[in-house]
Automatic annotation (TrEMBL):
Classification via Pfam families: HD (PF01966)
Taxonomic superkingdom: Bacteria
Region described as Disordered: 194-230
Low complexity compositional bias, start-end: 205-230
InterPro entries to which the protein is assigned, alphabetical: HD_domain (IPR006674), HDIG_dom (IPR006675)
Organism: Candidatus Ozemobacter sibiricus
Domain HD: 23-95
Protein name: HDIG domain protein
Amino acid sequence: MITLARARALLDQHLGANPALRNHSLATGAIMRALADRFGEPADDWEALGLLHDLDFEQTRDTPARHTLETVEWLRPEGVPEPYLQAIVAHNEATGAVRADRLAHALAAAESVTGLVMACAFVLPDRQIASVKVGSLRKRMKEKAFARNVSRETILECEKIGIPLDEFFALAIAAMAPLQETLIARTGPAFAAPVAPSAPPAPAAPAASGESGRSAGAPGAASTTGSTGS
């Protein structure tokens, strides 16, 4: 498997010019690491998967069905195992790939919940991820106009891997909170989260955000009201 250091280098190489999408990948990696600990899986490997899942977004922004396929072509020579490559492909439903194992469901749920957590943090007075409550996330899940491009159905795939929704929310908050200074800069949010792959790119959201509005051409920028939108 690719080393975590190499995964970070590739993340910087391909997404370093897009801080919002890079931060979404960092958040996904943190949640994947927490899930690996939960299941007794290799934490570095799962975190690397989270870091790399959107690696080709800039190259495939105009061809959504190709998103993740370029990534796989880059990562296979790096020695990334096939189940990890398949999980990357399957997180983009535009490819037609089916999520059929725990790793794929974990990645899809992890990268989707990042946007909901961020959207909730953005509307808090202190904008602290650690201040987000599980109950607030549960409530916002039911409000379709809030971070409207966040796929609630994909977040619920946590239950397919045996983790109740509230436990998954708590795990995501705890995993993302240490990244506070990176994900929410003093000048405002610098974060992107996944959006429906079939949607066209949308302009950057002004301030508050959640899974999915877009920011500076990322798969989606967190937006409390949502916007169109990996």
